[in-house]
Amino acid sequence: MSSPKPIQIILARQLASSLATPILIVDTDGTLIYYNEPAEVILDQRFDETGELPADVWSARFALADEAHQPIAQEDRPMMMALSERKPYSRTVWMRCGHREWLNVNITAFPLLGEERQFLGAQMIFWEI
Amino acid sequence: MRVTLWGTRGSLATPGAEMARYGGNTSCVGVVGREGTVLVLDAGTGIRPLAATIPESLRRVDILLTHLHMDHIQGLGFFAPLYRPDVEVHIWGPGSATLRLQARLMRYLSPPLFPVNLSELPCKLTFHDISSREIDIGEFHVCSALVCHPGPTVGYRIAAPEGAILTYLPDHEPALGVLRFPSLPREWTSGGALAAGADLLIHDGQYSAAEYTGHCGWGHSSLNQTLDFGTLTEVKQLVPFHHDPDHTDTDLDRLIAQAIEETKPGYQITPGKEGTTFEL
Lengths: 129, 280
Fold this sequence. Notes:
- Chain A is an alpha+beta fold.
- Chain A has one domain (7-128): 2-Layer Sandwich (Beta-Lactamase), CATH 3.30.450.20.
- Chain A contains 5 helices and 6 strands, in the order αββαααβαβββ.
- Chain A has helices at residues 7-17, 37-43, 47-50, 55-59, 78-85; strands at residues 23-26, 32-35, 62-65, 89-97, 103-113, 119-128.
- Chain A is globular, with a radius of gyration of 14 Å.
- Chain B is α/β, with parallel strands linked by helices.
- In chain B, the strands form 2 sheets. In chain B, strands 6-5-4-3-2-1-14 form a 7-stranded mixed β-sheet. In chain B, strands 7-8-9-10-11-12-13 form a 7-stranded mixed β-sheet, with helices on one face.
- In chain B, strand 10 (165-169), helix 4 and strand 11 (200-204) form a beta-alpha-beta unit.
- The relative contact order of chain B is 0.16.
- Classes of the chains: A alpha+beta, B alpha/beta.
- Chain A binds chain B through residues 1-8, 10-11, 13-15, 17-18, 114-116, 118, and chain B through 94-95, 97, 131-132, 145-148, 152, 176-178, 185-190, 192-193.
């Protein structure tokens, strides 16, 4: 069993589960604690099958490159920036999961702050261009 | 600890002969520890008769507010210890993103809505903003956490030194946004950690299953959801609470019996009736 989730995270999951936009939610350590069905298509895996995934595991599942097709280092990825700097970060990138085709997507990641600005984790949205 | 239900009605006080058995006062529960610590859970209209039971010798009372909807604070100005200079009154409850608890409460406890200003009260009054915290109040260890209900709302888990656990979730909609409830594990359910394994869970059960469909998002639960929440959290006893003001005693007898029949909980259900006392 994973740890109890704050209400803001629970509500974020409930909202994400009812949206057509691919969404990932991570906790304060970067552990991927939820991704919705549209994100399952992009990540080519199902949340029910993987459950929660540590940061190094889920971030290794796909490659990110900038618009010049140069690889983006792990620490410069939008979600990692949102986690480390605790502010929103948006970037248009090329993304590839496994051996599938490269996708041109905009990724927006933002921190989730609770009462008294308590840091709860972050959320990431994919927007295919 | 001794737990007494002083107000079990939701939304609006409902006097009347047809409501007399379950009671018409809005949310208020008294908790008295073996060492004499007194907690008051919410300040609905039930707080007035509760105050009459507080001994003259008591010097401290703690009021734990779940949220500031009117049915949970309407009795506050009528709580007799507020007018005693020899009593410390500590009020705990959630602030908002922009206002502290005291400022939020002053919107009600000031003219023209109420004739007395908070600053004029003779007791020694202290406010404590609380959201997701653990605190010790006298002999009790209290955990609070934000739960699913419109506006900042907390639930409380109160542990006595002898090990008894009381969980209070009077206004709670854990099924919001879930297609089938319960479908997620406890850690992904609002209030799940607060209620886990509680000896007594006092929980919102405002609607029938049919009524809930027309009130989704209002912040309350159907009786079936409430009983299923009790199963999910493995409580030992559950009190359906915060009865809809339109439900008479006869309605509540029928609706609770129907919910028990449909959900078949494996633990004790005690309908929330004003004046009921539990020894935990």
